[in-house]
Design a protein that fits this description.
184 residues; mainly beta; Lipocalin; eleven-stranded antiparallel beta sheet; 2 helices; Secreted protein
Length: 184
């Protein structure tokens, strides 16, 4: 059996995805749940994404639901592709026990779509916090720059997707809770 080739940097499709997302930096967009087979009150109310902080290696996107500003998606370049982490903060800016879960790309994806299966840290966190069903999570990001950004969670028995309308930027929301501490 041949050894898997080691990827030295993100692939062209991964870089294209990252760069297209980075081009939205500073803008905010309204979203709506378009698929949710297990509705939760945690995802009711107005939804906004704010492509807030962008560097050559990391993009931070607070995901605001109603008055809840606890969530930030962090997309970063790695030596092997892209990484998605979910940062969760309390209103006082301290970390939630369930923070920095996510995963790394395992395929090159495309300029419009990247998938992030749960990594070992996340699986361990989910087991420690009594959420074993989440060990099979895969998060998907879709980006159609002239139209829509989608965040999707899938696992056996669970489908959740929020679409954001990129054709109508909106006013920037208040910063995410603990924004000054949001670097990983």
């Amino acid at each position: 059996m041949a050894a898997k080739a080691v990827q030295a940097e993100p692939t062209a499709p991964q870089l294209a995805f990252f760069n297209q997302l980075s081009a939205l930096c500073g803008q905010s967009f309204i979203g709506k749940v378009v698929e949710d087979n297990q509705p939760s009150p945690a995802f009711s109310g107005e939804m906004l994404m704010h492509v807030r902080d962008c560097s050559a290696s990391e993009i931070q996107i607070p995901f605001v639901v109603g008055e809840n500003r606890s969530r930030t998606w962090i997309i970063s370049k790695t030596a092997d592709g892209l990484r998605l982490k979910h940062q969760h903060k309390h209103q006082d800016g301290t970390d939630d026990v369930s923070t920095l879960y996510g995963g790394d790309t395992v395929s090159e994806g495309s300029a419009q779509h990247q998938s992030f299966p749960a990594d070992a840290y996340s699986k361990d966190l989910f087991l420690r916090t009594s959420m074993p069903q989440s060990t099979g999570n895969t998060w998907h990001l879709y980006l159609y720059p002239q139209d829509r950004f989608s965040y999707r969670l899938s696992r056996e028995g669970r489908e959740f997707r929020v679409d954001f309308d990129l054709t109508k930027p909106v006013a920037t929301p208040a910063a995410a809770w603990g924004a000054e501490k949001n670097s990983i």
